[in-house]
């Protein structure tokens, strides 16, 4: 039986990367893979969760069909390696750090996907982005404005599992694992 694509989305700074890192071990124990993204971000700003490439390298990978999914946002290009289709076909679940802006296209390609929307209060979000210190204040403001565009429509959308990350990360990890194990209606 084919595995399930779990599409984790949420505003920049909501904690997607932190959640993936914290849940990496328990997810692996449950046979769920986490794919490493390809991003046109400098190598020092990416880690285990992503591979940094130049725009030319990204274009070459895309041209040779290397991506199952790809999108542009925040001035960067993001690619999800095509390898996920082999994993899914082999019956493994695959968790992807995705894009809200690319949700419709992802749903078209993977109709049975589980969408997990990470939410955080906007004021907390701003504090977390400032504390993370990866972007300039102008870039942070642009991310917050982008979040405001998506927030209301996505939080009310059917088939989207809302996962609040305003509290301790350990709670969010536990809730994610519950969702995957219990077959919440949005997880079915
Ligand atoms: N539950 C949490 N409580 C406190 N800080 C958090 C929590 N989750 C994430 N953070 C912090 O918020 C910042 C943004 O998290 P990050 O994982 O980089 O978000 P994203 O990948 O969604 O942009 C990081 O500095 C991270 O340490
Ligand atoms: O359409 P959106 O939902 O806004 O998403 C756009 C991109 O921004 C996030 O990545 P990014 O590398 O910027 O992660 P960050 O959240 O850590 O900044 C997200 O994972 C998407 O790749």
From TrEMBL:
Q: Its catalytic activity?
A: alpha-D-ribose 1,5-bisphosphate + ATP = 5-phospho-alpha-D-ribose 1-diphosphate + ADP
Q: Which SMART domains match?
A: GuKc
What would you give as a GO molecular function for this chain, any one?
ribose 1,5-bisphosphate phosphokinase activity
Enzyme class, top EC level, equals transferase
Residues in Guanylate kinase/L-type calcium channel beta subunit domain copies: 2-184
Residues that bind ATP, according to the entry? 10-17
Query: What GO terms describe the biological role, i.e. biological process, of this protein?
Result: 5-phosphoribose 1-diphosphate biosynthetic process; organic phosphonate metabolic process
Metabolic or biological pathway: Metabolic intermediate biosynthesis; 5-phospho-alpha-D-ribose 1-diphosphate biosynthesis; 5-phospho-alpha-D-ribose 1-diphosphate from D-ribose 5-phosphate (route II): step 3/3
Taxonomic superkingdom: Bacteria
Q: What is its EC number?
A: 2.7.4.23
Listed A to Z, the keywords are: ATP-binding, Kinase, Nucleotide-binding, Transferase
What is known about what this protein does?
Answer: Catalyzes the phosphorylation of ribose 1,5-bisphosphate to 5-phospho-D-ribosyl alpha-1-diphosphate (PRPP).
- What protein family does this chain belong to? Belongs to the ribose 1,5-bisphosphokinase family.
Q: What is this protein called?
A: Ribose 1,5-bisphosphate phosphokinase PhnN
Q: What is the lineage of its organism?
A: Bacteria, Pseudomonadati, Pseudomonadota, Gammaproteobacteria, Pseudomonadales
């Amino acid at each position: 039986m084919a595995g399930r694509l779990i599409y984790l989305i949420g505003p920049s700074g909501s904690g997607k990367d932190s959640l993936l890192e914290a849940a990496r071990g328990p997810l692996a124990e449950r046979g769920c893979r986490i794919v490493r993204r390809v991003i046109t971000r400098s190598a020092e700003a990416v880690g285990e969760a992503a591979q940094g490439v130049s725009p030319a390298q990204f274009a070459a990978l895309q041209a040779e069909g290397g991506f199952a999914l790809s999108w542009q946002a925040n001035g960067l290009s993001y690619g999800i390696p095509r390898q996920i289709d082999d994993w899914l076909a082999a019956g493994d679940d695959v968790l992807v750090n995705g894009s809200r802006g690319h949700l419709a296209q992802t749903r078209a390609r993977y109709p049975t996907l589980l969408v997990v929307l990470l939410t955080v209060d906007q004021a907390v979000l701003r504090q977390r982005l400032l504390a993370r210190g990866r972007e300039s204040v102008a870039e942070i403001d642009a991310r917050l404005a982008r979040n405001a565009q998506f927030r209301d429509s996505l939080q009310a959308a059917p088939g989207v599992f809302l996962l609040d990350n305003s509290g301790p990360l350990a709670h969010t990890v536990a809730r994610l694992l519950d969702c995957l194990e219990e077959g919440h209606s949005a997880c079915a």
